[in-house]
Design a protein that fits this description.
Elements: H1 2-5, E1 13-17, H2 21-27, H3 32-51, E2 57-64, H4 72-96, E3 99-103, H5 113-124, E4 131-138, H6 140-153, H7 163-167, E5 180-183, E6 202-205, H8 215-227
Parallel strand pairs: 1-2, 1-5, 2-4, 3-4, 5-6
Helix pairs in contact: 2-3, 3-4, 4-5
């Protein structure tokens, strides 16, 4: 009976590496763009599935610094898709009273996308019912390099450098580290996603492609986390917020 009444552990912060859009389309003899279209629709839904179950923060890997190496027509399509979808993301955020953040080298994005991302952040910054962190033109190594550059430019001394200080120079210094990182598509690597922050994150690799991710998969992620025994380098610990 004691086991049945034990409180379920809910991850505070879930990170998602969204992968498999192109393979999903290829297996259905569809253009690559159709996979990205469906994948982006999932992107607009996924945060609500987690927030409604007690998760406070969802970070998604939407476009990496390495993705620029893809065919120009695919990259251009993705940039247009993201730009056109910002209004929908903002509408959902306002409806659910959730904050939207964008993490990465936003200034390098094309057209007015940097300004548009900033406007979404400005309009949602006061919402408290969840944080949706969209990693766009993001790379874990780039984030660390950018932080070091800021430290050097601020003439920080060697004695002042420590883990907490370094984190203050990251893109989102106030966000806690992810409790669990999920990757879809069956690939089993983190691909430069939140390298520093993921030091002790649980990892969960799902075989299904991102366009097939459903609300029940969000439940599966939480259930998987609930079964993990987190040690964080020491004795087993419960999920501490």
């Amino acid at each position: 009976m004691e086991k049945e009444t034990k409180e379920k552990k809910i991850p505070n912060h879930v990170g998602i590496i969204i992968d498999g859009n192109r393979r999903w389309a290829k297996e259905r003899n569809l253009p690559t763009f159709e996979g990205h279209n469906k994948g982006f629709r999932k992107l607009k839904q996924v945060s609500s599935w987690f927030f409604s179950r007690g998760v406070k923060i969802v970070s998604v890997y939407a476009f990496s610094t390495e993705n620029w190496q893809r065919a120009p027509e695919e990259v251009n399509f993705l940039m247009k898709l993201i730009r056109q979808g910002l209004d929908d993301i903002l509408e959902v955020a306002k409806d659910k009273k959730t904050q939207v953040l964008f993490s990465g080298r936003l200034a390098e994005l094309p057209g007015d996308l940097p300004e548009a991302c900033q406007e979404v952040m400005n309009q949602t910054k006061h919402f408290k019912d969840g944080i949706f962190n969209i990693c766009l033109n993001y790379g874990g190594r780039s984030e660390i390099i950018d932080a070091i550059r800021k430290i050097v430019s601020n003439n920080v001394t060697v004695e002042q450098i420590h883990e907490g200080m370094l984190k203050k120079y990251f893109y989102q210094p106030d966000l806690p580290d992810p409790d669990i990182i999920v990757r879809t598509s069956g690939e089993q690597r983190t691909s430069n996603f939140l390298l520093w922050q993921a030091a002790y994150s649980e990892l969960f690799f799902m075989k299904k492609y991102w366009p097939d991710f459903e609300e029940l998969d969000a439940v599966a992620v939480i259930n998987e986390y609930n079964q993990r025994e987190r040690r964080l380098g020491g004795d087993a610990v419960e999920n501490k917020k």
